[in-house]
Recover the amino acids of this structure.
């Protein structure tokens, strides 16, 4: 799996034009590595040359792994014949994924070079809403009938299994394609050849609806340790399956999306180095703008109380520390809750349990931070640094603010994501940056209130 | 899959003591759902009663899904006989997971009730470092010899497959257990009964070392779309496999861990509602303390330039806005880079490409935010709100600071995670909260420098 070594070997064989050896070497490489290697070949003509040395099956597997950009370039270089060969070997869900990414002219060429059945299947998949279970399923699965014997089943698998993405989970359907049972190749192998499927199939079949979210489907697949999740339509007719490798991709995509949202970035599924500067700017600027403008509130608060602060100018020095501490505390709570919501560990019904827990956590976090801060101000800042402006009462104001703002930050941090979920928003957008803005305003007001009360300014 | 319905039905059958019906109903429920249902039964006696109605196989599957707490309680309630039955049905990697979580007395009882072979296998797994591939693998896999025919292979699978977690990927080993090939049940089914395995097995086998990180193993499994990843020792001897369902769990765990670290929380894999208040406090307080204390720098900066700020007190009003904007910009960059590093989209070698991109993104983000801020200050704050203290030069100072701090925040945000990775730290700890502290200090210095230069204070 050493890329540099593989690259050198390929380059060397390519320079020597040692085609037999090169062909053997290339076809021995796993398709996922192959795709990575070919994407890094900058010479377009060399890339297509190498690609053409792959066997039909390897070519198709590798093609699916390329990014959209490389796929488009290769399709332009393909003859109709070559394109047809690659498409023939591909699974329908992969073809549908590619069609979705390509410009209209390329889509036309792809559809022209697939048979009618495939074309119809692709169209069906593309009609489902983005991010729905229907949009990522494949219509290619093994279906059996309940009165088949194990021997019949194996015959059917041998006959039709070659083009199926997975053959290990077999679905039992009735005459109108309703999903009535499920079994596995493992079960089939462990039963006798003459056993009837109906007698040992699992009839309590867990399935997902075409319109369910792809995340729901993937999480369910992971929960039940399935290799494939059956997808049914409104009438419980089996229309496709989601395979475990696609489910993992969805899980990773959704994680990336959540992480981006938590960091106030509009989600994108393009890898970092392939996103242009302007594209990256477009994903980041909306939240920065919104958050900057909402910070007008803090400016207004400080402007309003300008005279009070001028009377005790030492207080200004702690504003950044108070803002950061509040933001960090709120961020911890919100991110924990967002993740727990997305893993299904907590639900809307737990809101009061969550708030009660966060109040207690906030209180002991606030108290411990407040005590440390008090000691630091009185011993370090006042004595070591000799800052005589930091009086006992100033320290008390700062530390009481810490206690209060942390409790407030924890409550806000845990409540907002749950409320967002309740009203149908994505909880992930309620993460630290958003909560920071709210906590900032509250902290400043608390700070000034304590200052007025204790310092009598 | 309606939990409330299932719960009611069970309660009803339980009240009626309708054992036959109850037994049938319980054994029809998927083990993952079953575990969730039983965990929510608060009456200990009722739980063990219901659990005892499960078939041996269902009982073991359900038991594995319970949290450690419930497992421990059940083990205490089990007779030795019952415990042995459950352990017999469990896969070795699952038993090892449980042994790891239990107190010594329970571990002793578990080991006493397993056979010698299992005990040795568990001990081997437990000896591998935490989070290594070896610690999550299972030693139960299908191994074949290269001179077997397809028929021999199926015979072997039928004979030994029952206790194996997965039978679909079959590994070909030589006499000293070296991994020399791999094939799948699909391949076996699609070849003729008399074909020899050596003729069609894949010899370019991708495997993982026992000491590799579990995350590396899971990512590789996902990259290559495997159902199981073979794990070999230093001599390339096959010692176990990691199955796809465990790989998904690792991926989710690592994602949770990254997200927690990014939010300045010490990672934990206990679900939110099961973590006590003190436990949660312990996970959150270290970072809050560290970040609060490091904010001493900003306090020092503000104290040092106290007189300058007093001369233009309007500047104080914008400090929270500047801090937040810098923190958010840096957070966007760092989180994007952390995620790309963890998905393997970028590596150490890309550092200059990354910095160059972030400088450009930072510049146009900074320029656009600066312009909007300038317009807002001059039109809204000055004219609409009538704040005459906001002069043209004050606005220029604020907006130039925004431009500079954003570029700085982007550079720091993208550099620190890569450097962390380089020196062997987890990049995720270099996320927003940490970067905020650094960016705050830089922003303040830039702000004051501009103020001194432009406002001549």
């Amino acid at each position: 799996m050493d890329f540099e070594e593989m690259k050198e070997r390929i380059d060397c064989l390519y320079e020597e034009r040692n085609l037999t050896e090169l062909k053997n070497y290339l076809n021995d490489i796993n398709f996922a590595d192959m795709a990575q290697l070919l994407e890094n070949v900058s010479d377009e003509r060399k890339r297509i040359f190498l690609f053409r040395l792959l066997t039909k099956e390897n070519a198709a597997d590798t093609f699916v792994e390329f990014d959209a950009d490389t796929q488009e370039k290769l399709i332009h270089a393909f003859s109709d014949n070559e394109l047809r060969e690659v498409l023939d070997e591909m699974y329908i869900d992969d073809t549908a994924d590619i069609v979705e990414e390509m410009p209209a002219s390329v889509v036309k060429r792809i559809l022209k070079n697939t048979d009618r059945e495939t074309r119809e299947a692709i169209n069906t998949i593309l009609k489902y809403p983005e991010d729905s279970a229907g949009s990522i399923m494949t219509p290619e699965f093994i279906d059996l009938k309940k009165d088949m014997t194990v021997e019949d089943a194996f015959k059917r698998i041998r006959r039709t299994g070659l083009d199926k993405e997975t053959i290990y989970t077999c679905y039992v359907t009735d005459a109108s394609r309703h999903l009535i049972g499920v079994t596995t190749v493992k079960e089939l192998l462990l039963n006798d050849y003459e056993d009837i499927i109906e007698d040992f199939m699992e009839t309590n079949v867990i399935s997902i609806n075409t319109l369910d979210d792809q995340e729901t489907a993937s999480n369910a697949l992971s929960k039940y340790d399935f290799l494939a999740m059956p997808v049914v339509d409104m009438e419980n007719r089996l229309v496709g399956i989601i395979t475990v490798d696609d489910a993992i991709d969805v899980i990773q995509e959704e994680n990336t999306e959540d992480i981006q949202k938590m960091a106030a970035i509009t989600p994108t599924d393009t890898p970092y180095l392939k996103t242009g500067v302007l594209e990256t700017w477009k994903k980041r600027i909306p939240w920065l703008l919104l958050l900057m403008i909402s910070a007008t509130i803090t400016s207004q608060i400080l402007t309003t109380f300008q005279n009070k602060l001028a009377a005790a100018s030492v207080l200004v020095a702690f504003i950044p520390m108070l803002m950061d501490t509040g933001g960090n505390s709120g961020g911890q709570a919100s991110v924990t809750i967002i993740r727990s919501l997305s893993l299904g560990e907590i639900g809307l019904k737990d809101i009061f349990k969550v708030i009660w827990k966060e109040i207690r956590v906030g209180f002991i976090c606030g108290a411990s931070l407040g005590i440390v801060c008090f000691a630091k101000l009185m011993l370090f800042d006042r004595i070591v640094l000799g800052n005589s402006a930091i009086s006992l009462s100033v320290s008390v104001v700062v530390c009481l603010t810490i206690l209060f703002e942390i409790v407030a930050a924890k409550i806000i941090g845990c409540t907002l994501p749950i409320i967002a979920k309740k009203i149908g928003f994505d909880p992930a957008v309620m993460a630290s940056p958003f909560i920071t803005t709210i906590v900032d305003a509250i902290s400043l007001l608390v700070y000034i209130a304590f200052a007025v009360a204790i310092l009598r300014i």
In short: The mean pLDDT of chain B is 90.
